[in-house]
Specification:
Blueprint (H helix, E strand, L loop, with lengths): L6 H54 L21 H66 L42 H4 L6
C-alpha cells in the first residue's frame, strides 16, 4: 500500500481484498467439486467398461464345461463305488466321442475345400481349352471363306457349343462331336445348323 493512504482507505482496501479472496476460495471449491464429479464418473465408466470387456471375453472364449463332477447333486460318493466308476467312464466316453466328431468335421471340411479347389482348376482348364478351340474354329472358317467366297454355310464348320460345368465329382467338359462340321472334336450348335443354305 502507498504510504500516503489513510487508515480508512487502508481498511477499505483490506476489505476489498478479503472479499476478492473469498470469491477466489469459492471458485476453487467449485472447480474441485467439478473435478471430483468428473473423476467419480470416470470410475463408474471404468467399472462399466470392465464389466463389458469381461462379458465379451467370456462369450469369445466360451468353452463347454467338461469337468468331471465328483459330487453330483451335492452328494458325497465313494471313489470305489460302482455307480461312481460307471459315471466316470461315461464322462470319459462322451469326451472321446466329442473329440472324434470334432476331428471328423475338420477332415470333412478340409476334403470339401480340396474338392472345390480341384473342380475350380479343372473348370478353368476346360474354359481355356474351349477358347483355343473357338480360335481354331474361327481360323478354319475364315480360311475356307477366303479360298471359296461362294461356299455355302452348310459346308462350313458348325458353331462350337459352350462347355457345361458340373460339380461334386461330375464331368467337366464340352459336348461330344456328332455333327459333320465339328472342329477339334466339338459339335456345332443347332442355331447355325438351322440357318438356310446359301446358293
Amino acid at each position: 500500500m502507498p504510504p500516503s493512504w489513510t487508515c480508512h482507505e487502508q481498511d477499505i482496501e483490506v476489505t476489498n481484498l478479503r472479499i476478492a479472496l473469498a470469491h477466489m476460495h469459492m471458485d476453487i471449491q467449485i472447480c474441485n467439486a467439478i473435478i471430483e464429479g468428473d473423476r467419480a464418473q470416470m470410475v463408474v465408466q471404468d467399472m462399466h467398461l470392465g464389466k463389458l470387456q469381461s462379458a465379451l471375453h467370456g462369450k469369445e472364449n466360451k468353452k463347454r464345461d467338461d469337468h468331471t463332477k465328483l459330487f453330483p447333486e451335492g452328494k458325497g460318493r465313494h471313489l470305489t463305488n460302482t455307480e461312481f466308476i460307471a459315471q466316470l467312464k461315461h464322462v470319459q466316453k462322451v469326451k472321446e466321442n466329442t473329440a472324434v466328431e470334432k476331428e471328423g468335421r475338420r477332415v470333412s471340411k478340409a476334403a470339401k475345400k480340396a474338392t472345390v479347389a480341384a473342380e475350380k482348376e479343372a473348370w478353368l482348364k476346360v474354359q481355356c481349352k474351349h477358347a483355343q478351340a473357338v480360335v481354331a474354329w474361327e481360323a478354319v472358317k475364315a480360311q475356307l471363306i477366303r479360298e471359296n467366297p461362294k461356299i455355302r454355310k452348310k459346308d462350313l464348320p458348325l458353331k462350337l457349343r459352350a462347355p457345361w460345368k458340373t460339380t461334386q465329382g461330375g464331368r467337366n467338359g464340352i459336348g461330344p462331336s456328332k455333327g459333320p462340321g465339328a472342329v477339334n472334336g466339338h459339335e456345332g450348335s443347332s442355331e447355325e445348323s438351322s440357318e438356310e443354305n446359301e446358293d
